[in-house]
Specification:
6 helices; mainly alpha; single chain
Length: 144
């Protein structure tokens, strides 16, 4: 409400207010998905990878759990960042998300194209692609 009043008086642009609200929602969705996958990979990495037709060795299970810990940490970070005011730190978080998801999308697309996963693997290609596009939008919209 206060932000709306400031925007109405010309003290904050409506465009910045609107973008901040959209970024907040985007980070919330991203964080929920990261936490979901994070917990899944920490608690049951073999079950998570079996959904994609992949079996892991003991070392693979360990790496899966470490990946889950990273997902959980990034999810918590983004959940709390969703309430942050525009800043250099928030811009850095968005850029990091863009880099992470562009690389993830590329690696998963190559793996899926090589037949390393079953058809369910396309869901992760799609998720990474959508999040890369979202982070790209917020990164480049913020620069203009």
């Amino acid at each position: 409400m206060i932000v709306t009043l400031l925007a109405a008086r010309g003290m904050i642009s409506f465009q910045i207010m609107e973008m901040a609200m959209k970024l907040s929602s985007f980070l919330a969705v991203n964080s929920v998905i990261l936490v979901f996958f994070g917990i899944g990979f920490i608690v049951m990495p073999a079950t998570m990878t079996s959904l994609y037709g992949v079996e892991l060795s003991a070392m693979g299970l360990l790496v899966g759990q470490l990946l889950g810990a990273a997902f959980l940490g990034f999810g918590i970070l983004r959940w709390h960042a969703r309430k942050a005011k525009p800043s250099a730190l928030l811009s850095a978080l968005v850029l990091a998300g863009l880099v992470e998801d562009v690389i993830g999308f590329t690696v998963l697309l190559l793996a899926q194209s090589a037949g390393l996963m079953n058809a369910m693997g396309w869901s992760n290609v799609l998720l990474y692609g959508l999040f890369a596009a979202g982070f790209g939008y917020f990164h480049f919209a913020n620069e203009s």
